Structures are given as C-alpha cells and as structure tokens.
Amino acid sequence: MKYKRLTKEQFEALHLEFANFLASQSIDKNEWDEIKTNKPEVTDQELDVFSDLIWEGVLTNAQFLEHFSKNHIFLFHCQNDFIQSMVLKSLVPEVDFLTSGGLQWLSDNLFTDTVEIHVGKKDYDKERNDAIFDLITQGTILSDGQLYLQINTILQA
Length: 157
Fold this sequence. Notes:
Elements: H1 8-13, H2 15-24, H3 29-38, H4 40-61, E1 64-68, E2 72-78, E3 82-90, H5 100-109, E4 115-123, H6 128-137, E5 141-143, H7 146-156
C-alpha cells in the first residue's frame, strides 16, 4: 500500500465508486460477500488498492493546502515540480486564528508589524504526490486556494 487505507466513513461515502471498482474486476456483490467471508487477505488487498487509487486521484488534483493553528497559518500552492508556501504568524499571542475573531483580526492587521509573512518555494524532495500526502498526514487540509490567492495578489501589488 502506497498511502493509507480509507476510513470506514470514506468507504461508505465512496460506496458506488467502490462497487464500480469491483465490477471492473468482474467481482459482483455475491462474490464480494464470499471474498469478505472466506478470504480476508484478498479483502484487504482490494481495499488497499482502491484506497491507493482514490488517494492518487486526490493528490494528483491537489493544488492548494492549508493548515491553521492558534498563531500561524500555513498556505501551500502545489505546482508540478515545486511547492510555494506562505506562513502568516501573529506576533500578538492572544490572537487565535482558529476563531472567526482571529481571522477578522488578521484581515485588519495583515500589513502591520503584528503579522509576519514568510514566502518560500521548495522543490519536492520526493515524488509530488508523496510530498503532498506527507503534508496531509501532518494536518494540512485540501483547500480551494482562495486565501492563498488573495494574499498572493496583495503581495504582488
């Protein structure tokens, strides 16, 4: 297995896709029920292969990632050969970016001396999808990139 097995909830949400995956291997419901009962190792293999296929698609299409903590916001733009990052840091310890008040504070204070902004670019040190998967396992989430693009536009102006 290259990534990690999907959770039970994720499999439930992808029930139709999993059924189509099994059907593409000529495994119908009856045969799948038999495999689950009599061949747990084959069940595990099928679940793992399907999980990797889903992860591969998600990671290949990933463009933006975000990670919020109390005083930091990490924003990533995933390119083909490198990743661009923006780190926003509040120098006011009471500010909490995990709240709407903290985000409003950021909006009001973005270009003051109470917010540090660090911009960077790094080549992937491994395959792109593996690097993105590592970031996700460390707590980043997929994003539409709206915040990254807004701040990047302001910085470029």
